Fold:
Amino acid sequence: MEFKSLFETYKNAVFQKDIEAFASIFDEDVQVFDMWGQWTYDGLAAWKEMAKGWFTSLGTDRDVVTFDNIQMQETGELATATAFVRFTAVSEKDEELRYLENRLTWIARKKNGKWGILHQHTSGPVDFETMKVILRR
Structure:
């Protein structure tokens, strides 16, 4: 599996609300600095619980994930990637309901020929005056 294939797996897993496919691209020891509600998720079990809550919260809606401006560096058994990510909620009728954007950083390692994300960091800039996170570029 190529490192860049993790992006496609992520997109498909989120759209299908497939927790096992989602988890398949992360290392067992993953640490995630997520934007939503919690400072860190340590380990794959904690990250899978987050995904379960996320996917369940969507009800019948689905999230369409698109990546923009992907920058990747791969050196032997380690790789990094940065990108802008758009999460677009769509209804059962494929109507766009809402969207938000994040900045994303992945650090991954290859173990037994398979890439796994060791660290994920998502963020958004904060408006100086309102102290609110900016979720649209």
